[in-house]
Specification:
- The chain has 25 helices and 44 strands.
- Strands 5-2-1-11-20 form a 5-stranded parallel beta sheet, covered by helices on one side. A 5-stranded parallel beta sheet has the order 12-19-13-14-15.
- Strand 40 (about 720-725) and strand 41 form a beta hairpin.
- It is globular, with a radius of gyration of 31 Å.
- The protein folds into 5 domains: about 5-155 and about 275-345, FAD/NAD(P)-binding domain; about 170-270, 3-Layer(bba) Sandwich (FAD/NAD(P)-binding domain), CATH 3.50.50; about 355-480, Jelly Rolls (Sandwich), CATH 2.60.120.10; about 510-640, Jelly Rolls, CATH 2.60.120; about 650-840, no CATH class.
- Helix 1 (about 10-20) packs parallel to helix 7 (about 325-340) and helix 12 (about 470-480) crosses helix 13.
- The longest helix has 23 residues, at about 610-630.
- The chain has about 850 residues and is α+β, with helices and mostly antiparallel strands.
- This is Cyclic nucleotide-binding domain-containing protein.
- Keywords: 4Fe-4S, Electron transport, Iron, Iron-sulfur, Metal-binding, Transport.
- One of its GO terms (molecular function) is 4 iron, 4 sulfur cluster binding.
């Protein structure tokens, strides 16, 4: 037989159809009793999308967007009409070459036994033809084998206590089967979103549906699915828990680890749709090598889908292409290649050719793809096929020496990768000639990608260069699907954070050994990274979130200081020796970089300036410890009050704030000048509510934006209308479409949806003639009476922007006649200086 095709999904069906059309002897092996088991197992009534829309379909089978049942019916009819040779209930057990031994092809394979143990053995590869042995004992001999088996049979399992309980499932067949249940869907990809929407579609079913997504965004899902999910969330049909993960499963309950700590919720059923991994053991037994040892790595493939086992080809999801249209095109093309059509170009060739047409040099699409892949570190782990898909969402650009790539304070969250040439980062706005080079192979722009901040520096091309601009969506997708790319981005961003923090004349080469020991840890809200009295000398750098430092005084934990992202801790035990002198815990869900003490000590020994910097930081912290210890008896009440005040502020969002409005109730006279000034500075709409919010002792936190370090509101903004300004302010631009996602995502209730009121008469007109509503936000009655007839203004998201662009700073603070209102960064407010003022020691 000429071709044996394993798996009748979209890729395998398309390959079989092409073989039938060319008159090639073939067999399509399907282990079930029906075609396309993956789509067959889609939930009933699922709408199947035909993306990418710009990609031409060149399969012998028809495919367009539609219901699962209609698509399967069409394919069944076409398989019969076109003479596709299908062998049902034919599960493949092994594939082995029957020709001569391939010199130098002995392969080491890790075999996992049923008891959990594993062993490594060597396997000699043999040339085709191949013997395909089925589980029923039947054997088939074929010149070529096409593996189109996908990955759905090897789902990622729920790995937490209770994850193996019977109410945890990995498939949803018919959403209508479930009624009056608390159902949690885990996974923010297309499958998880579609399952959640299906379960919540009919309110009469009475299901309470929640979706848990590990990240803040849905980077791997189709845009239409994300919008449908957000609409369902806005309507209250689906509860969306982002930046969360399951911590424990019990009968009737699930414990979820959220940004703000663990929460135990009623749960009758869990549907885990957390992706899947290639069936590596079976594939390696066939003599096929993978691109790396990562569990999610894909097989090594040539541009024509051939593996390292000659005559065995891999297409579809197993090749890293999960979209149906991609899979079907590959099925068509691989049979053409096997049949000798070496001139055939992939269906996406014209799209990619257009992307590369303005680059210098005469290279084909394949040559450009390989050039970019081999010259950019974060792309080295991609196969040629994955590179094609990646470049569909990215842009390759040529720059002349001196060209500006982006300027300081420009909005932007894309990532840039240098394939050839050099980038120069102007680190000082007042001295453009002082720049730091970034060489070929590296990346820049990762700060905007990770934090959403505006560009922190102007970057120019230091030489004639070729670079790839990777959109935020494409970068997040790359990092989630290619472990090697995530490691490369993480290492580079970690290196630059350490260089920025520690300075002291350090170079990337100096940090190499320290980075080799670096480990990124996710820390739950309230979880300790250091405990007082324990041994240890590792250094912790706060990458995302914030920490507080506590010390036990008189049997009680006393708040010492607040550490925002960009701080580090742990140097005292490393330099002075001994046990930890204080405890450090997360205020919100955070990320820290743990650096091994031994490696950091060697770096300090080699760099005296770094050691001196660390000693200064240690001395400052020792002063705080000594201050608290010396006053633990005489000022215990005040110290306790300060600790409780600090805890109150952290509990009310200051733990992730960069700027927060506080009101001293001892000084506030309730004049509401702050609200009126805010409204008059912002088109008649106030951005704060003075009376709302919580109070502890005399300290009040009104409802006003905290300008979080990693803003919740930025997640899932369709027009990308939310940005961070040069002074840290988070603001919404005029491209807002009023979808309300930011309002729903904000945990502090500081965003409102409203339309801009009619223009008011000037203040003098009001004072002299009584014209208009007066200072502050006009009443709804006045707005209604003065609205333009027949014109309903659209609502947009409105929030505090820290009066960006208004001379004098925040209007709320300037308008306060008693000085009760202040805007502060938490690290300035939560410090020992404040404690000294409270106790009277600082006067």
């Amino acid at each position: 037989m000429r071709i044996a095709i394993v798996g009748s999904g979209p890729a395998g069906l398309s390959a079989a159809a092409r073989a039938a059309a060319l008159g090639l002897s073939h067999v399509l092996l399907e282990k079930t009793d029906h075609l396309s088991d993956t789509i067959y197992k889609y939930q009933k009534g699922k709408h199947v999308m035909a993306t990418p829309s710009q990609l031409v379909l060149r399969s012998d089978f028809a495919f367009d967007a539609g219901k699962r049942e209609a698509i399967l019916g069409t394919w069944n009819d076409q398989a019969a009409a076109q003479g596709v040779n299908v062998a049902y209930k034919s599960e493949v057990k092994a594939i082995e070459g029957t020709g001569e031994a391939i010199p130098g092809s002995v392969q080491k394979i890790v075999v996992r036994n049923r008891d959990g143990s594993s062993e490594t053995r060597e396997k000699q590869r043999f040339a085709p033809p191949y013997r395909i042995t089925l589980t029923n004992g039947q054997a088939i001999i074929a010149d070529s084998v096409i593996l189109a088996i996908g990955t759905q049979g090897n789902p990622n399992l729920l790995r937490c206590p209770g994850g193996d309980l019977p109410h945890v499932q990995y498939q949803l067949d018919d959403p209508a089967e479930y009624n009056d249940e608390h159902i949690f869907v885990i996974g923010g990809g297309d499958a998880g979103i579609e399952n959640a929407l299906g379960l919540a579609a009919d309110e009469a079913q009475g299901n309470i549906v929640s979706l848990i997504n590990r990240g803040a965004e849905f980077s791997t899902a189709k845009g239409a699915n994300v919008q449908a999910l957000l609409a369902a969330g806005a309507a209250g049909r689906v509860a969306i828990l982002t930046e969360s993960s399951p911590a424990k499963v019990e009968p009737g309950f699930i414990t979820v680890d959220t940004r703000d700590g663990e929460v135990r919720l009623p749960c009758d059923r869990i549907i885990a749709r957390m992706g899947s991994a290639p069936p590596r053991g079976f594939v390696e037994e066939c003599g096929i090598e993978f691109t790396s040892g990562d569990r999610l790595a894909f097989p090594k493939l040539s541009p024509v889908f051939e593996t390292t086992a000659p005559g065995i080809f891999v297409i579809g999801a197993l090749a890293g292409y999960p979209l149906i249209k991609h899979c079907m095109n590959q099925g068509h093309d691989v049979v053409e290649f096997i049949n000798g059509n070496t001139s055939l170009k992939p269906a996406d060739e014209p799209i990619l050719a257009a992307k590369f047409k303005d680059l210098p040099g005469q290279r084909s699409v394949d040559e450009w793809l390989e050039f970019l892949r081999t010259n950019i570190s974060i792309l080295e782990g991609l196969s040629p096929l994955q590179m094609r898909e990646f470049m569909l969402d990215s842009e390759a650009r040529a720059y002349r020496q001196g060209d500006v790539i982006f300027e300081r304070n420009d909005p932007g969250s894309s990532l840039f990768a240098i394939a050839q040439g050099q980038a120069l980062v102007e680190v000082r706005s007042d001295a453009p000639s002082i720049s730091v080079p970034i060489e070929s192979g590296s990346i820049f722009g990762e700060v905007g990608l990770i934090s959403g901040r505006r560009r922190g520096a102007t970057v120019r091309a230091g030489a004639d260069s070729i670079m790839v601009e990777v959109s935020r969506t494409a970068a997040l997708k790359l990092m989630s699907s290619v472990p090697a790319a995530k490691r490369a981005v993480t290492r580079i961003s970690t290196e630059r954070q350490l260089l920025q923090m520690f300075g002291a004349g350090l170079t990337p080469a100096d940090l190499a050994d320290v980075l080799d020991t670096a480990e990124i840890l996710t820390v739950k809200a309230g979880e300790f990274i250091i405990r007082e009295g324990e041994e240890g000398d590792d250094i912790f750098v706060i990458r995302v979130g914030s920490m507080i430092v506590e010390k036990i005084v008189g049997g009680k934990p006393v708040f010492l200081s607040y550490l925002p992202a960009g701080s580090y801790v742990g140097e005292m035990a490393l330099i002075a020796g001994g046990r930890r002198t204080a405890s450090v815990k997360a205020t919100v869900k955070s990320e820290v970089i743990r650096l091994k003490g031994e490696a950091f000590r060697a770096l300090m020994d080699a760099k005296p300036a770094l050691l001196e910097r660390a000693r200064r930081d240690m001395a400052a912290r020792q002063d705080i410890n000594a201050f608290v210890e010396s006053r633990k008896d005489s000022f215990s009440t005040v110290v306790d009050m300060y600790s409780q005040t600090a805890k109150f502020l952290v509990d009310n969002g200051i733990g992730e704030a960069t700027d927060v409005l506080l009101i001293d109730e001892h000084l506030c006279v309730g004049c509401d000048n702050c609200e009126k000034a805010c409204a008059d500075s912002h088109e008649g709409l106030s951005r704060l509510d003075r009376e709302a919010g919580k109070t502890y002792a005399h300290l009040h936190v009104p409802t006003s934006c905290r300008h979080c370090e990693h803003p919740h509101c930025m997640a899932d903004c369709p027009p990308n209308a939310i940005h961070r300004g040069p002074d840290g302010e988070v603001f919404i631009d005029d491209s807002c479409i009023g979808c309300g996602n930011c309002q729903r995502n904000c945990p502090y209730g500081v965003i409102r949806m409203d339309s801009v009121p009619p223009k008011k008469p000037g203040l003098l007109s009001w004072m002299l003639f009584g014209s208009g509503p007066g200072p502050g936000e006009p009443s709804k009655t006045w707005r209604y009476k003065n609205a333009e007839p027949g014109v309903e203004k659209p609502k947009k998201a409105i929030k505090c922007d820290m009066c960006s662009g208004i001379e004098g700073g925040p209007a709320c603070v300037r308008a306060c006649p008693t000085g009760a209102a202040i805007r502060v960064s938490p690290e300035d407010f939560l410090g020992i200086a404040r404690l000294e003022r409270i106790t009277g020691e600082g006067r």
